[in-house]
Amino acid sequence: MTHSAAPTSARAARSAGGAAKLTIDLTALRSNWCYLNGKVGDSCTCAVVLKANGYGTGATEVGKTLYHTGARVFFVALPEEGIDLRKELPHAEIYVLNGLFRGREKFYYDFNLKPVLNSLEEATEWSAFAQGLNEELPAALHFDTGMHRLGMSIGDALKTGESPHFLKGIKIDLIMSHLACADTPDHELNAKQLDRFQRVCELFPGARKSLSNSAGIFLGADYHFDMVRPGIALYGGNPVPDDSNPMLPVAHVLAEIISLREVPHGDPVGYGASRVTPRKSRIATINAGYADGLHRLVGSSDDQPIGARVYIGGHFAPIFGRVSMDMIAVDVTDIPEEHLSRGAPVEIMGAHVNVDELANFAQTIPYELLCSLGARYTRHYKR
Fold it and tell me: For this structure, is 209 an active site residue?
């Protein structure tokens, strides 16, 4: 007897299980935005940076949640991201940080996206497009005060003041720059960038001003101006690395035990036989690996025996050996038996293993870790 395959869908496939689960805590997200909004006060707008799919958490859900919480200004990296967000937030202000992409002016216009103009060339193109429509179109001007990545030079700022034709047809509603070392409060570049930005702002007295990212908010009121642009802090990353994290964790990764085995003393575990058991050990295999954003550096070896850890049944357990594409091995020898079974939940990241700790073991930053959370995760939103 032949059976035809049942109809399938992406949702049905995910419901079948097998993938680790990514839960986005929208209540924590709201709390983080409200905390930052309160820190800068009523005279300063707390915007939202939503690039890279909301740092891996889901730009659409994050955007809608924070709009209903009170946020009205959003920053994306690409016009495509702005178009997707506009469909959900018809009345929000949306800026495109990576600037005006040549030949795509009409997309910005049709979806009411504000380009962050990063060069005189971009300003000239946006000006020509506006004049062709016989309209005044909004934009932000980004000035490079020391990061040397994007933005017009200080000399360009003077040119725009001396030669207004560069900006004809453009309604400048925001002047901005970006801090390079805000997460190192004592770095001398912070004060230099602040001074340079203040001098640029004098040339544009009628526009709003914005300098601070997440860490910049914690440098003090001098850095706040009219608008701040938090990103990683909204999603639970620590904006003050040398102090305790004031933000709540937003992304929670929960996997499960898929195998348990006894390994004799002195036997290797995993690829490359890089880690040998120092005693008779119990090893659990967990269903998440580097394809799911767990960087290989979070593993351990006999040469580097201290790796990242997971949380099982109220106990921490170290990752043992190399990280595989789909799995990690964990030493659960010291965890009580009642917490160990196939299907038992394992916290990879969340309330007990925070994103900063995991990023530290991966020798990276929480931004990269969140953005690399794989597409295989079943995503859930906790409201």
Answer: no
Question: 206 in helix, strand or coil?
Answer: coil
Among 207, 235, 263, identify where a domain stops: 235
Yes or no: say if 120 and 152 are a contact pair by the CB < 8 Å rule.
yes
Residue 375's pLDDT is: 83
Residue 9's pLDDT is what?
53
Confirm whether 294 is domain-assigned: yes
b/e for 76-110, b at 16 or more Cβ within 10 A?
bbebebbbbbbeebeebbbbbbbbbbeeebeebee
At 234 the pLDDT is: 98
Which of 256, 245, 274, 282 is closest to 345 using CA atoms?
256
Which entry of 21, 51, 114, 209 is annotated as an active-site residue?
A: 51
- Other CB atoms within a 10 A radius of the CB of residue 285 amount to 18
For the segment 232-283, what is each residue's pLDDT rounded down to a tens digit? 999 999 999 889 999 999 999 999 999 999 999 999 999 999 999 999 999 9
Do you know the residue count of the chain? 383
What does the mean pLDDT of the chain come to? 94
Choose among 317, 313, 315: nearest CA to 284: 317
Residues of the chain by 3-state class (helix, strand, coil), percent to 5 = 35, 25, 45
pLDDT at residue 2 above 50? no
The last residue of a domain, from among 204, 235, 266:
235
Same domain, 275 and 229: no
**Percentage of residues of the chain with pLDDT beyond 70:** 95
Active-site option among 35, 67, 109, 271: 271
| 311 assigned to active site | no
349: CATH: 2.40.37.10
Q: Are 245 and 356 in contact (CB under 8 A)?
A: yes
Query: Does 184 map to a domain?
Result: yes
Domain count, the chain: 2
Residue-wise pLDDT tens digits, 10-55 = 555 555 567 899 999 999 999 999 999 999 999 999 999 999 999 9
Do residue 217 and residue 103 come from a single domain? yes
Give the domain extent around 160. Answer: 26-235
Distance CA(165)–CA(126), nearest Å, equals: 12
Angle at 92 between CA 205 and CA 62, to 5 degrees: 120
